[in-house]
């Protein structure tokens, strides 16, 4: 149930005009500042606003007003309305303009690919989609999966960069609490755009040549010294040429 009445300022106008409640009582009940209520009474605030009857609209009882008028320290209590229970918590998915709805699969694929740590509920809230659609793209069973290219949802205008950074940071905090060990690639994905740009570059070796870290194309010093000490006065011995017919033999 909401803590304040609907149309608070119009309700304040009605209470000022129709009751002898103090400015503080009206201000506390309507969620306004006491000076603002005084301004309503003086005609400086809410000029032209029509009063909204809280009794007729099931927000306040006459008995509660009577208690307040009899005791200046009494705080008015909003009338319980069973129909309003949980209303402030009822939140649907983010509204996406019709012109951008065709871009949502591309954004979902980008999030699934580059931020697999995000839950379906987080993605749904971020880009305004449904869990079945996210699941279909995760499992590559979406009807148009072969034609979808991953595109950053920020670039598509489906969310703000700050919203994306916040949801990624929450995922990082959750992983840290669970004590999971993250790879270097996961750690890069779990930082904000600003942090990733500030970070220094790191030399990485392609996985295709993993295990060849100690390989070198240059000879060692001992090998070079051995080559320099070799006697090269006899060219034939240096090149280790096979024995063959001599020129004088060929002349005979």
Commentary on this structure:
The protein is mostly helical and 252 residues long. The protein has 2 domains: 8-84, no CATH class; 93-199, no CATH class. 46% of the residues lie in helices and 0% in strands. It has 14 helices and no strands. The protein has helices at residues 8-18, 23-30, 34-42, 62-70, 104-114, 120-127, 131-138, 153-156, 161-178, 184-189, 193-198, 221-229, 235-239, 247-251. The radius of gyration is 39 Å and the shape is elongated. The chain starts with 7 loop residues before the first helix and ends with a helix. 18% of the residues are buried. Residues 192-219 have a biased composition (Polar residues). It comes from Palleronia aestuarii. Residues 178-191 have a biased composition (Basic and acidic residues). Residues 220-229 have a biased composition (Acidic residues). Residues 178-252 are annotated as: Disordered.
* Biggest sheet descriptor: none
List low-confidence stretches: 83-91, 191-197, 199-209
Oligomer class: single chain
Please trace the helix and strand order, writing H or E for each element: HHHHHHHHHHHHHH
Structure summary, number of beta strands = 0
Q: Whole-number average pLDDT?
A: 74
Q: Number of folding domains?
A: 2
- The Cα radius of gyration reads 39 Å
Individual helix count = 14
Structural class: mainly alpha
Through-space gap between termini = 121 Å
Strand fraction: under 5%
Tertiary shape: elongated
């Amino acid at each position: 149930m909401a803590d304040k009445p609907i149309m608070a300022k119009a309700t304040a106008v009605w209470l000022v005009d129709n009751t002898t409640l103090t400015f503080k009582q009206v201000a506390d009940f309507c969620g306004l500042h006491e000076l603002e209520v005084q301004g309503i009474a003086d005609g400086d605030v809410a000029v032209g606003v029509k009063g909204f009857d809280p009794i007729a609209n099931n927000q306040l009882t006459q008995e509660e007003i009577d208690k307040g008028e009899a005791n200046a320290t009494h705080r008015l209590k909003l009338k319980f309305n069973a129909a309003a229970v949980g209303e402030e918590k009822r939140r649907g998915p983010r509204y996406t303009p019709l012109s951008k709805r065709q871009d949502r699969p591309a954004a979902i694929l980008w999030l699934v690919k580059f931020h697999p740590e995000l839950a379906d509920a987080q993605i749904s809230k971020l880009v305004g989609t449904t869990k079945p659609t996210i699941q279909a793209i995760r499992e590559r069973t979406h009807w148009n999966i072969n034609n979808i290219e991953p595109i950053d949802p920020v670039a598509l205008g489906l969310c703000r960069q700050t919203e994306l950074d916040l949801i990624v940071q929450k995922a990082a905090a959750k992983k840290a609490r669970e004590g999971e060990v993250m790879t270097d690639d996961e750690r890069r994905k779990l930082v904000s755009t600003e942090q990733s740009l500030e970070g220094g570059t790191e030399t990485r070796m392609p996985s295709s040549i993993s295990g060849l870290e100690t390989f070198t194309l240059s000879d060692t010093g001992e090998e070079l010294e051995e080559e320099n000490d070799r006697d090269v006065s006899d060219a034939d011995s240096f090149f280790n040429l096979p024995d063959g017919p001599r020129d004088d033999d060929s002349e005979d």
